[in-house]
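Recall the central idea of this unit: under ordinary conditions, the amino acid sequence of a chain determines the structure it adopts. In this exercise we apply that idea directly, starting from the sequence alone.
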Amino acid sequence: MTGHEHPKPITEADVDEAIATCDGDPRAAIKALLVAGELLGIALEEGREEAGWGYVRGRPSRHREAS
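Accordingly, the structure predicted from this sequence is:
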């Protein structure tokens, strides 16, 4: 997704599904979504670091070389 595209609209059905997934507990659904957002943020940052060292320069990253 580029900076110019809009994310998929969130529908009431999406909200209902998130709550239902958490056995009808809206607080648990919010907590799960916040945790998921944090994990995605971590994964994004790791991807940016990986790209910064490897893909941008056309060489394997330092992270991969150390593995």
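The CA atoms of residues 49 and 61 lie 9 Å apart.
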